[in-house]
Amino acid sequence: MSETVERHEFGAEVGRLLDLVVHALYSEREIFLRELVANAADAVDRRRFEALTNEALALPAEAKLRITPDKAARTLTISDAGIGMGKAELAQHLGTIARSGTRAFAQSLAEAPAGEKPSLIGQFGVGFYSAFMVAERVEVTSRRAGTEEAWLWASEGKGDYTLAPAERADAGTDIVLHMKADAEEFLEPFRLSAIIRKWADHIAIPIMVVKDGKEEPANEGTALWQKPKSEVSEESYTEFYRHLGHMFDSPWATLHWRAEGALDFSALLFIPGMKPFQAVEEERKSPVRLHVRRMFITDEAELLPPFLRFVQGVVDTEDLPLNVSREMLQATPVLARIRRAVTNRVLSELKSKAKDAEGYAKFWENFGTVLKEGVWEPGEHQKDVAALLRFRSTAVEGWTSLADYVSRMKEGQEAIHILVGDDAAALAKSPQLEGYRARGLEVLLLSDQIDAFWPERLGSFEEKPIRSITQGAAKLTPAEGEEAAPDVSALLERLKTALSEHVSEVRATDRLVESAAVLAAGEFGPDLAMQRLLRRAGRGFAGGLPVLEVNPRHALIRKLAEGEFDDAALAEQAGLIFDLARLQDGDSPRDPADFARRVAAALAG
Questions:
Q1: Measured between alpha carbons, how far is 379 from 604 in angstroms, rounded to an integer?
Q2: Residues 151, 143: Cα–Cα separation, whole Å
Q3: What is the dihedral of CA 295, 299, 304, 305, to 10 degrees?
Q4: Helix orientation angle between 189-200 and 31-50, rounded to the nearest 10 degrees
Q5: Could you give the domains of the chain?
Q6: What digits encode the pLDDT tens for the residues 534-581?
Q7: Where are the residues of the annotated region C (predicted)?
């Protein structure tokens, strides 16, 4: 027998290339099983296709992939009933790095009708060599369908391989991996099953793992997203959603469609019905899984933009080229078009669901904060996302949209008014609102941290500028029946002198009705909410000190304007007013202990 063994050199610089495959090409060793299963699935598909014109090549009644671990022998065997390979094919496809039989076969089918082409997974011919990440020796026994001869290919991945006659009862291929000492984890049936579920759960061919002499199914074998919607029940959708995202609820929305034409892909996406335990605000990446011809490739393809990262699901395409590692996607125009199409479909679904105000409110309370990032990030979807935003308001109960706000704007009102803070309930009681309420002007109450950022980026909605009511002087027309304000200009100068280290200006305002004073930001630079965030982060900002606005009609301001206070007494009162204004705005007094002392002294009279 040894006389018939032929020794051959690999057809490329195999030492360097195998070293690349084993140590650099793949980041996870378990990938080897995905690659070998993909090759086996391709072989079965090739045999099924060729049997269309040659009945002698027909698959066995129960074609399957069989994975058999043997701890005693320290071997792992992967068997299929596929097309198999003859001597020449073994030398050609396994003896030359980066020459793939699958790829050559796919090229030969270029003229075949689209509906008759098998779904081929492997394309680049290096996946087989990933076996050497875990195996010190690899043996391949294969018999080409329609022939009687079998051949054994064997190599230790060190520059050469051998070919020898062999025996195999039926057509197909057996790959035997002689495992390395540090790879014995891949001889555990439960570990093998877990890898199959992760990487190849939806390959149509049954994959069996042998445990204690019995075959146990390792894959589901049906790609739910490939089925017509009419054939999938709500229960099946929910079960798959829970399996996919490890969730316990039911999806709030299910999107299932197939795109055909310029792009060819299937998608099954879910919008969760509840927040996940791990906040989606933390990880700004889309978890949607990318499959190519039903084979899981990665969940890091970022198929949706970060502001839609709460969406779970699968996108499966046959059009997407991959690089040789099959882990890192090429930046291809096809992938960019798929991303755009999937994003547009999700936004369209949200727009449709938003017509049901009560149902949409549940979604908004779960994921509204994340969706707002789509307005902060400029791009083609900014206006679409803006239309999906919801807010609390001084004019209506519940949530309202920017479009609804614009429809309620008073005649002559030029801008959309907003007030940003940390808590919507506290904002609703803010003295900043007094003058707007007195004039029947609606103000949107924004209480998420990102609300300090996106309004300036969006700028306007339906040609109406978005303005923070804490920025710049309030430009309010006199309220009906409002008495003329007394002249307190002399007091304003004295207050500004007393507070020169803390304010840039002291001015009278019409924005207050019941309160004595309030802070405002300058006309340019960040508003008060943004200033608070920047101070908490230890960041400086342009725009200078805040402005102190006082209500000239308030009894306290009148008392100070009409009374005789020396500079020291007025400075004491000015400091108290300034700290009260800070408290009203959500900040602490400059010196809490001193503030408490002054308040106690004032109360004592």
A1: 59
A2: 7
A3: -160
A4: 60
A5: 2-217 (3.30.565.10), 224-356 (3.30.230.80), 391-468 (3.40.50.11260), 489-604 (1.20.120.790)
A6: 777 667 666 678 899 999 999 999 999 988 889 999 998 999 999 999
A7: 533-605
This prediction has a pTM of: 0.74
On whether the CB atoms of residues 525 and 541 are closer than 8 A, the answer is yes
Under 8 Å between Cβ of 1 and 164? yes
For residues 472 and 527, what is the distance between their CA atoms, to the nearest angstrom? 8
**What interhelical angle do 333-353 and 357-371 show, nearest 10?**
140
Query: CA-CA distance, 299 to 290, in Å (whole number)?
Result: 6
Residue 2 — left, alpha, or beta (φ > 0 → left; ψ -120 to 50 → alpha)?
A: alpha
Instruction: Return the number of other C-beta atoms located less than 10 Å from residue 478's C-beta.
Output: 12
Model confidence over 235-259: pLDDT tens digits? Answer: 889 988 887 877 788 999 999 999 9
**CA-to-CA dists, residue 231 to 224, 239, 314, angstroms:** 9, 15, 18
If you average pLDDT over residues 14-18, what whole number do you get?
60
The pair of three-digit structure tokens given for residue 500, joined into one six-digit string: 């020169």
**Distance (Å, whole) CA 297 – CA 314:** 11
Q: Which two tokens stand for residue 185?
A: 């984890």
Average pLDDT, whole number, for the chain? Answer: 86
46 touches 83 (CB < 8 A): yes
Range name among 180-194, 206-220, 311-325, 418-432 with the lowest pLDDT average: 311-325
CA 422 to chain centre: 26
439 with 395: CB under 8 angstroms? no
Contact 413, 406 (CB under 8 A): no
User: Within a 13 Å sphere around the CA of 586, how many CA atoms are in the beta-carbon half?
Assistant: 24
Instruction: Say how far apart CA 306 and CA 240 lie, in whole Å.
Output: 23
| Residue 363 CB-density burial (10 A; 0-12 exposed, 13-18 middle, 19+ buried) | buried
Higher-pLDDT residue of 332 and 206 is 206
The DSSP secondary structure of 114-159, one letter per residue, reads: GGG-------SS-GGGGGGGTEEEEEEEEE-TT-S-EEEEEE-SSS
> What DSSP element (H or E) covers 211?
strand 207-211
Residue 295 has pLDDT above 90, yes or no: no
pLDDT band for position 110 (cuts 50, 70, 90): low
The pLDDT score that the predictor gives to residue 63 is 87
CA triplet 130, 134, 139: central angle to 5 degrees?
Answer: 75
Looking at residue 398, its pLDDT comes to 94
* Strands ordered across the beta sheet of 312-317: 253-259, 265-271, 312-317, 289-292, 295-298
Q: How many residues does the chain have?
A: 605
CA distance 444 to 415: 12
Measuring CA to CA, which residue among 293, 294, 383, 391 is closest to residue 344? 383
* pLDDT, tens digit (0-9, with 9 covering 90-100), for 379-405: 889 999 999 999 999 999 999 999 999
Phi, psi of 344 (to 5 degrees): -60, -40
Which amino acid type is present at position 114? A
